[in-house]
Design goal:
Helices cover 39% and strands 11% of the residues. It has helices at residues 42-51, 73-91, 106-120, 133-144, 169-172, 174-185, 201-209, 220-233, 239-245, 249-256, 261-268, 272-284, 294-297, 302-315, 337-341, 349-359, and strands spanning 61-64, 67-70, 98-100, 125-127, 161-165, 191-195, 210-213, 246-247, 288-292, 325-328, 384-386, 390-391, 401-403. The strands form 5 sheets. Strands 7-6-5-9-10 form a 5-stranded parallel beta sheet, sandwiched between helices. Strands 1-2 form a two-stranded antiparallel sheet. It has a two-stranded parallel ribbon with strand order 3-4. It is globular, with a radius of gyration of 24 Å.
């Protein structure tokens, strides 16, 4: 097998394969597994070098005379405790904030919430899960009432079109990109639709074997409204699937009718022809796989834009078949629980969540959502989230914007402004 510099060319050599075939095994090291089929990304190959680096910290550092010097753990922790005590005495609990990793598990996050909310009493607690996993989980729950992914990496093996929305898979998920490159190198390759403002490796491949759309940051929702407008206007909707599995289609169609390519082109700095070309690729796909990552999540109206990608799959009936799925990419092991556990309205929220969910009964179609949380304080949370299209088991397939926990806050420009009439929870 031809060897390549895995730093310069992190995706290794090609092992082409066609639609419906198994991804060939390529053993990079003494490894063979059912997901990566023996492949390793550059972090796996060279992570040991970073871990063994001589400049890696092994002892805490404190600042003395404007410079960082090594010290022992007791001294370092003593400084943290002393300064924290000073701040609490001088300014109160709100002088201390926590911004934490998403790599904590539920028990660790619960302990942190007990320290921050219960012991210190600060209301400044957040984590990086708000920037990725929270949006992915919220969008999936809005549409499907569950944050489980309705897709699989094996859908890459069957897809006729792979659409990547804000997902620089080449540099964030090197092994998955390797899989896509191998499909592109084989017979009957899929077309690539890349949505993102930067000239990434994915964008360069998409310009050769598909479509690259480069909207500026903050315009994802307007672009998705325009794409859904074209899907509906050109009758690329799977009406039988929509009628059988969704509700709220008429309201969604009414909303996106306000976003023809000309208007979206002005909002997004794109040519209307670019939007129509992307719609043609997405609308004519026999098997469509859509993926999302930070380019959509870390932006204005992120959850709503992600819901509209779900809507695209549902309008086209592209779920439940090989090569047809959605992958709302996120990486934290227990990210969706973090905001709940850290909620200052109920520090003991974790055990109550478990108890409440264990008693929840299945909801039939079109049943209104659950009653508002009795512990909710309307003055505490006025952020908006979407309603979106939904599977019939969910009870809501509308394109309207609904405030979180039924608070009536104004919607942002470009989002739907009507109250959800489809009974979404």
């Amino acid at each position: 097998m031809q060897e390549k510099d895995r730093i310069v060319h992190p995706w290794g050599v090609r092992t082409p394969y066609g639609p419906g075939e198994d991804w060939p095994t390529r053993v990079d090291q003494c490894l063979a597994d059912r997901v990566n089929r023996g492949r390793l990304g550059p972090k796996d190959l060279f992570g040991w070098q970073a871990n063994a680096s001589p400049d890696r910290l092994t002892r805490p550092l404190v600042r003395q005379g404007g410079e960082l010097v090594e010290t022992d753990w007791d001294t370092a922790m003593g400084r943290i405790v002393a300064r924290s005590r000073e701040l609490l005495d001088e300014r109160g609990p709100s002088s201390i904030g926590f911004y934490t990793t998403g790599q904590l598990f539920a028990e660790e996050c619960y302990t942190l919430a007990a320290i921050g909310h219960g012991a210190i009493g600060t209301n400044h607690m957040d984590g990086n899960t708000r920037l990725c996993t929270a949006m992915a989980a919220a969008a999936l729950k809005e549409t499907f009432a569950s944050d489980g992914q309705p897709g699989s990496y094996t859908d890459v093996d069957h897809a006729g079109v792979i659409a990547l929305f804000g997902h620089n898979v080449a540099e964030t998920q090197t092994v998955l990109w390797t899989r896509m490159l191998d499909r592109l190198a084989g017979p009957n390759p899929p077309r690539i639709v890349c949505v993102g403002p930067r000239n990434t490796p994915v964008a360069r491949v998409a310009r050769e074997q598909g479509v690259h759309i480069a909207p500026p940051p903050g315009t994802s929702l307007a672009l998705m409204n325009g794409l859904l407008h074209e899907v509906i206007a050109n009758d690329r909707v799977d009406h039988e699937y929509v009628a059988a599995h969704t509700v709220g289609y008429d309201e969604l169609a009414k909303r996106v009718a306000e976003y023809p390519p000309e208007r979206v082109g002005r909002l997004c700095g794109l040519k209307p022809a670019e939007i129509r070309e992307a719609d043609w690729v997405l609308g004519e796909a026999e098997r469509l796989l859509s993926t999302l990552l930070q380019g959509f999540y870390q932006s204005h109206q992120a959850t709503v834009a992600a819901v509209q990608v779900n809507n695209l799959q549902l309008l086209r009936g592209m779920l439940g078949r090989p090569g047809c799925g959605i992958l709302q990419m996120n990486g934290q092991p227990h990210g969706p629980e973090h905001p709940r556990v850290r909620s200052r309205r109920r520090p003991d929220r974790l055990p109550q969540l478990v108890e409440r969910r264990s008693r929840r009964r299945p909801r039939p179609a079109l049943e209104p959502g659950p009653a508002p949380d009795p512990a909710y304080d309307p003055a505490d949370d006025t952020r908006c989230r979407s309603s979106g299209i939904a599977r019939r088991a969910r009870s809501g397939f509308c394109g309207s914007q609904r405030p979180t926990r039924r608070c009536r806050c104004p919607s942002s420009p470009g989002s739907a402004r009507s109250w959800c009439r489809a009974g979404c929870s």
